[in-house]
Amino acid sequence: MVQAMRRWSGACWFGLVVAAAAWSGCQSDASAPTPVGPSAEELGVGEIGMRRLTAHELDNVLVDLLDDDTRPSAAVLPEDLRTPYDNAWVDQDPSQILIEGLESLARDTAQALVADAPRRDAVVGCMPNDVADTACLQTFVERFGRVAWRRPLTSAEVDDLVTLGAGMAEQTNDFYAGIEVVVRAMLQSPYLVYRLELGQPVAGQPALFELDGYEVATRLAFLIWGSTPNDALLDMAASGELDALAARRDAAVTMLDDPRARLQLDRFHAMWMGYETLPHEPAITSRMRQESAALLDRVIFDEPQSWLTLFSSTESYIDDTLAAHYGLPAVGSAEATWVDVSGAGRKGILSHGSFLSAAANPIDTSPTKRGKLIRERLMCSPVPPPPPDVPADDPPDQALGNCKIDQYAAHREDAGCAACHKLMDDIGFGLENYDRAGRYREHDDGKPECVIAGQGEVFGVGTFQGPAELSDLLLAEGLVDACAVKQLFQYAMGRDLAPSDDAYVGKLVEQFAASDHRFDQLIVDLVSHEAFGYRLSPPVATTTEEEGN
Amino acid sequence: MPRRRLPRRTLLRGACGAAVALPLLECMMPERQAQAADPPKRYFVGFGGFSLNVDQSPGAHSLVPDTVGANWDVKQMLAPLNGYADANGAPVKERISVVSGLDIPHASDVNAMPPGSRYPGDSFHFHGNAMLCGLQQQGELDGSVTGMSSDQIVADAIGQTNIFESLVYRAQALFYNTGGGTFDKSHHRDTLSFDTGGQAIAARTSPKSAYESLFTSFTPEDPVEAVAKELELLKRKSILDHVDRSINGLLPQLSAWDRQRMDRHYDEIRALEQLLEATGPEQNANCMLLPHPGDDPPLGGEFGQPFAWNVNDGYSNEEARARVLTRLMHMAFVCDLTRVGTFMYTMFQSFMNAHPLVGASYNVHALNHLGQQTQHAAMIQWHMDHFGELVAMLRDTPEAGGSVLDNCAMAFLIEGGFRSATTTVPGGHSHTTENMACLVAGGAGGLKQGHHVVAPNGANHPCNVLVSLMNAAGVDVTSLGDVQGAIGDLFG
Fold first, then answer.
1. Which residues contact A156 (CB under 8 A, 6 or more apart)?
2. Rounded CA separation A48/B369 (Å)
3. How confident is the model at residue B271 (pLDDT cuts 50, 70, 90)?
4. Beta-carbon separation of A91 and B187 below 8 A
5. CA nearest A83 in B: which residue?
6. Which end of chain A is more exposed for a tag (fewer CB within 10 A), N or C?
7. Pairing of strands B42-48, A208-210
8. Phi-psi region of A44 (alpha: psi -120 to 50; beta: other; left: phi over 0)
9. Residues B370, B318 contacting (CB under 8 angstroms)
């Protein structure tokens, strides 16, 4: 009803208010209608529930708050599922494991802090005159509290924490026992653990809230840095500066200059494209990750250019070890350096060991899974699930032939299978010359008689051979840029896309094209869209939030 | 997870009913005062994420014994049960029964699904609702659980007065399939325990956390350590008081969805506060504070050898984790800290790396589909070794003239069975819930020990085994979910 009202205007608007008041039995004076703010639909705002920091984010926060780089969270907190992103709020159910994990995490990190005098003194920021130096304690609570809880503490909260700390200091005759309990309390507080977006209710729009400056700063920081906002950003929130879209834009540009932005975008791409963990020895895994990270850094940060260069770059950042692993000529350097790899049929990230290692079977590539990964993650084109009685786990049928392509024949020749497998296998077979560790091969593993043709097809789009031609095809047909926007949006919101996102995402797709596909610009456009500063609270599930999953 | 006496929700619901005004509520009394005579009964469900995968018909099988009844013959997959002998040299198999001939019906028609059945199609790996709760699977690749698992029903019946209503452990530290795999989500496939409405109870995987939680109520013998622990308890309580105040101030400000989630967060904090108030059991020759297990093995693990499958890919020293968690589960039962435990050794469709354990270059799931029989059997033996050790430890702990095991009702469930049809059937031999088997141990309620029982037609769902064990644990039920009946042959 309320949304319908907003879409009307002029005389009709007044009439509807009267009608609504009468309908709801409201006895108030209809001649003085309360103002009604813009609707979620008009703003392009979708649902977001209260988000908990992921284990990865909590580790980043510990680095920023306490200079603690031990990254202890994953060991004691419930595992963050991958959807493929690790921040889906609908899955973040509280549990006993979470509560006790947070408690022990806070204990261990706070105790390590107070036991490390130089680090402790830097974090505390003042030297106590005596055990009962509540002035120093209070200064610490106010300053540290603001960065820990991403907003200034109320005087009641400061008093509460100072009382907690001073009591423990007195009882133990140790000022730093007081610091320890205060840090522990702040670390396991819901104000740190959850990204609370209370905001201000938008008049006449149930469940719609406009975020305050601190909440916007928090959204910016967790999106761009994967961590907590710093003092500068909180100052901008305090001054009201972040209320202006132009200031958010400027803030994002500045934030992208921070090294944390590089790590964040590297990790985002790794979750997106499936190479966050790689099944190789550390020496190879680290070089593959470095190869992809270096290309992202170059394309997004160091020599800002079209993000599509991620797929079309003829140069790769490799050293002799990785070159030898790939079967490329030595680059003549133990340190990674940019070399032209296009002569070897490689181009862009689709030819990186990182990407080629994703979606593999245990001892060989899976053309099906590779094709599915490319179609679903890069083209945002979902493949229907297997029909009844077709398990995705079955190995190819060895009885159908000696060579792999023949073993997959059932996928092509059975009409029931072919319809979907054509969407996947035909892409995967175009990459078959690259094994599950990204090495070039002429034939099936251990079978010289099975020469790999490496012919692929993106059904309905065109044919290709190898990752370079596949990249050319995807770019020429414009198949990845809108999908990139959707993937970033999904990560930014911590949920799948909904129809209510169409306007917001659609505008970003246009802006991405207009900015020559600059990924840094895409992030800036995302955070300076008006809807970024709003939140629509999800409806309550009937019995438990579990059912919303 | 370990729900304790009087979580907040229970208080709000008024579980103590009209007696709320009474000064000392009977339901708040420590159980210890009321139980001097009979030792408590305990209920345990273990689980391994694998199929039997090879022919289990008589003469050819490698798990199901040929011999029915007592003195069953030990096949390859159960070899570890020939070990863990007692003081008289009797192996632990003499206290463990095998139940064969089990089957979870696989529906062919969505509109005609039998009770506790799998959904049509290749619904394998997602059948927890059928296996653990006796309810119908909700969709083909849908692991949703919609009801209570047997352990939580038992916990509600016999565990309310213990410090931990139940313990929910898992050895496999992570889902591990984080890349571009077919299934990214582990949702509802990572625990065995589900509360009302299918509310998942997250499994505890950190041995260090499990240890610290379990022994919270114990006072160290060393007086210096005891003082330190007392101070630490004081700190924890003061901090949680502060958190309470924050949440109480916050709740009214939250929108409905957020408030629901914060309420649950608060419930769990209140449960922790209850734990901090709990008085621990008296320590004696059997019930004792175990030494601290130290830091957890690193997640993902690095094992130093330059071979793709044994480094940094899906192994977090689950061997060491399972050893510690086994000792904690044992001590929890011995000290009557809990009467209900679940232990997921490996997850449904386990992507844990099998190489460090059995030398096969596969994860456990792929090993089922692609590995050699001897490697597959070795992986099952790994599970059996840990389950066998737990049974033996309970057997070797005296209680009331017998052993703790005499008062236990324990199951070890196996994800899949064996399909004897040819591999033209989807999923080959492994994606099936035909010809399943499970293990049963303990002597509670007159359970036979050390027998091979063939489940009778009409009572051959794994939930029929669970109903039997629930009865053995003193819980008077005739069904689990939609699956009716116990297996009389398990008693005698």
1. none
2. 40
3. very high
4. yes
5. B184
6. N
7. unpaired
8. left
9. no
Mutant choice from B108, B216, B257, B264 vs A, greatest count of A C-beta within 10 A: B257
Q: Indicate the pTM of the whole model.
A: 0.91
Contact state of B256 with A537 under an 8 Å Cβ cutoff: yes
pLDDT attached to residue A112: 98
Paired residues of B342 in beta bridges:
B45, B168
Kindly identify which residue of chain B lies nearest to residue A107, measuring between CA atoms. Answer: B236
* Alpha-carbon gap, residue A262 to A515, rounded angstroms: 20
DSSP state of B1: -
- Measure in Å the smallest separation between the Cα of A524 and chain B Cα atoms: 28
Q: In terms of C-beta density within 10 A (0-12 exposed, 13-18 middle, 19 or more buried), how is residue B263 classed?
A: middle
Counting one residue from chain A and one from chain B, the pairs whose CB atoms sit within 8 A come to: 255
User: Which residues numbered 293-312 in A keep a CB inside 8 Å of some CB on B?
Assistant: none
A436-446: buried (b, 16+ CB within 10 Å) or exposed (e) per residue? bbbbeeeebee
Contacts of B260 in chain A (CB under 8 A): 540-541, 544-545
The alpha carbon of residue A368 and the mean position of all alpha carbons in its chain are separated, in whole angstroms, by 26
Q: Spell out the residues 6+ positions from residue B76 whose beta carbon is closer than 8 angstroms to its own.
A: B62, B63, B377, B381
Q: Is A93 in Cβ contact with B261 (below 8 Å)?
A: yes
Task: Tell me how many degrees the CA angle A473-A475-A476 measures, rounded to the nearest 5.
Answer: 65
In this prediction the ipTM stands at 0.90
Contact A50 B313 (CB under 8 A): no
| Nearest residue of chain A to residue B206 (CA atoms) | A76
| CA separation for the pair A287, B473 (Å, rounded) | 56
The span from the first CA to the last CA of chain B, in angstroms, equals: 34
Q: A380: buried, middle or exposed (CB in 10 Å: 19+, 13-18, 0-12)?
A: middle
Alpha helices (runs of H) in A477-517, residue ranges in sequence order: 481-493, 502-514
Residue-by-residue pLDDT tens, chain A, 549 positions? 333 333 333 333 333 333 333 334 334 455 566 789 899 999 999 999 999 999 999 999 999 999 999 999 999 999 988 888 999 999 899 999 999 999 999 999 999 999 999 999 999 999 999 999 999 999 999 999 999 999 999 999 999 999 999 999 999 999 999 999 999 999 999 999 999 999 999 999 999 999 999 999 999 999 999 999 999 999 999 999 999 999 999 999 999 999 999 999 999 999 999 988 887 877 888 899 999 999 999 999 999 999 999 999 999 999 999 999 999 999 999 999 999 999 888 999 999 999 999 888 777 899 999 999 999 999 999 887 766 556 566 666 677 788 999 988 878 787 778 888 899 999 999 999 999 999 999 999 999 999 999 999 999 999 999 999 999 999 999 999 999 999 999 999 999 999 999 999 999 999 999 999 999 999 999 999 999 999 999 998 754 444 333
Phi, psi of B172 (to 5 degrees): -65, 115
Q: Which residue of B has its CA nearest to A198?
A: B254
Kindly report the number of other CB atoms within 10 A of residue B306's CB atom: 11
Q: Which residues of B touch A93 (CB under 8 A)?
A: 200, 202, 261, 264
**Which SS3 state, helix, strand or coil, does residue B439 take?**
strand
Could you say which residues from 47 to 76 on chain B have a Cβ atom under 8 Å away from some Cβ of chain A?
A: none
Closest among B438, B446, B437, B203 to B329, alpha carbons compared: B203
- pLDDT higher for B1 or B353? B353
Total residue count of chain A as it appears in this document: 549
Q: With CB atoms and an 8 Å threshold, state whether B245 touches A160.
A: yes
Where b means 16+ CB within 10 Å and e means fewer, B99-123 reads: bbbbbbbbbeeeeebebbbbbbbbb
Q: What is the DSSP letter of B265?
A: H
**Nearest one of A302, A427, A445, A298 to A368, comparing CA atoms:** A427
